[in-house]
Design a protein that fits this description.
Strand order of the largest sheet: 2-1-3-12-11-4-5-10-8-9
Strand content: 25-35%
Bound molecules: nicotinamide-adenine-dinucleotide
CATH architecture of one domain: 3-Layer(aba) Sandwich
Radius of gyration: 23 Å
Low-confidence stretches: none
Number of strands: 14
Mean pLDDT: 94
């Protein structure tokens, strides 16, 4: 593989997956032509498409292809009417997506949330709170914290309890109840590696990082803050600030434009990234990246839209392909270091929106100059703007 040639596994999946993937590939082909890179893209089935083709949500051949690729461009998987017909562990999201995250050690989840000024109407916040447009990136640790810490269990507790302390006969009753335990654990190396991802991402943006914790209450928060401050010394060009998670949730509603990169542990990131996503108005606009380790300058990653398979609009040329197209831009930026090409895709998306191109999810009849178009026309407009 030469310096300018990369192997990509394109797994479109189910529902709107194939439609939006086709548009992302169209845009990547336009990028190849303009930037002189070679993308060896191989398509393979996953999800129900995998079950139908090879009896498994993640067929062996698809998994092998991923192992031989530098990055995975993923659509989405799962169909609500078919999922309940098979055991939970064989269902597409668990058997394909979660397995890929685990097998490839994808520890960093990046979710950019961008609300261009032209789409102000799609945002639930008042226009005066949106400033010149919202543009932030939530970096979430994906493999540690409360979701995975041990012990993790629900147990039955039996306790003898005095009914009344004044009672001379010391009558006692037996209390039985369940107790649930989740353990929040982070180690210094886990915090360090996600902090590096956050600071590096900030260097590619407006160079500000807000680290989220609960250092006023949690031991985890104290360690998180200490390690992030230590890692910050390697990135003197990035301005670091700390914020308690409760205040972070509130600030996102009051003044979202203050944020550039928001760095979070797993659970806080899960909650805050969904809160941030609501600001963009449509799932069809939100890309994401899940990153693993870096070898020989290439960071392995899985890139996918934040939304699901949208069966309500699948096969009708109605889906917004922008989330998938922006996911492919993230792949160029974070896995292959092709920043100029990634920026060209972002700019092409902005141009299509400025020119009035709108799929149904971002269309408003009060928006002067907006034209309602289909999935493939949106892809054409973006590819043409590369
Ligand atoms: P969904 O994200 O598929 O749809 C929610 C709403 O958002 C729908 O109204 C849909 O039309 C709309 N929407 C989503 N993407 C859109 C796009 N690109 N353009 C325009 N509108 C869009 O969520 P759901 O309905 O809860 O789930 C449907 C299926 O997708 C389920 O089987 C679920 O398990 C699966 N799912 C998969 C993933 C994944 O593969 N990562 C993520 C979420 C849900």
């Amino acid at each position: 593989m030469s310096e300018n040639s990369f192997n990509v596994a394109a797994l479109a999946g189910d529902g709107i997956g194939p439609e939006v993937m086709a548009e992302a590939l169209k845009v990547l082909r336009a990028v190849e032509g303009r930037f002189g890179v070679t993308l060896n893209i191989t398509e393979a089935p996953v999800g129900w498409a995998g079950i139908d083709a090879a009896g498994k949500a993640l067929p062996d051949e698809t998994f092998e292809l991923c192992r031989n690729s530098n990055a995975i461009l993923f659509g989405s998987v799962g169909l609500p009417d078919r999922d309940p017909t098979i055991p939970k562990e064989e269902r597409p999201e668990r058997a394909a997506l979660l397995r890929l995250r685990k097998e490839f050690g994808l520890f960093a989840n990046l979710r950019p949330v961008t609300l261009p000024k032209q789409l102000a109407h799609a945002c639930p916040l008042k226009p005066e709170r949106q400033g010149e447009g919202i543009d932030m990136l939530v970096v979430r640790e994906l493999t540690g914290g409360m979701y995975f810490g041990q012990p993790k269990t629900t147990e039955l507790v039996t306790q003898k309890d005095s009914v009344n302390p004044e009672d001379k006969k010391k009558t006692r009753r037996i209390l039985r109840y369940e107790r649930a335990i989740d353990t929040m654990v982070y180690t210094e190396p886990e915090i360090e590696r996600i902090a590096h991802v956050g600071f590096k991402a900030a260097q590619l943006r407006r160079k500000k990082l807000t680290s989220i914790d609960k250092a006023n209450v949690l031991e985890n928060g104290i360690l998180w803050r200490k390690v992030v401050e230590r890692v910050a010394k390697n990135y003197p060009d990035v301005k670091l600030e700390h914020m308690f998670v409760d205040n972070g949730a509130m600030q996102m509603m009051l003044n979202p434009t203050q944020f550039d990169v928001m760095l979070c542990e797993n659970m806080f990131g899960d909650i805050l990234s969904d809160e941030a996503a609501a600001l963009a108005g449509s799932l069809g606009m939100l890309p994401s990246a899940s990153l693993g380790n870096t070898e020989a300058g290439i960071t392995f990653g899985l890139y996918e839209p934040a939304g699901g398979t949208a069966p309500d609009i699948a096969g009708k040329n109605l889906a917004n392909p922008i989330a998938q197209i922006l996911s492919s831009a993230m792949m160029l930026r974070y896995s292959f270091g092709l920043n100029e090409a990634a920026n060209a895709i972002d700019a092409a998306v902005s141009k299509a929106i400025s020119d009035g191109c709108r799929t149904g999810d971002i269309f408003s009849s009060h928006d002067p100059g907006a034209r309602r178009i289909g999935t493939s026309e949106m892809g054409d407009a973006i590819a043409a703007a590369i």
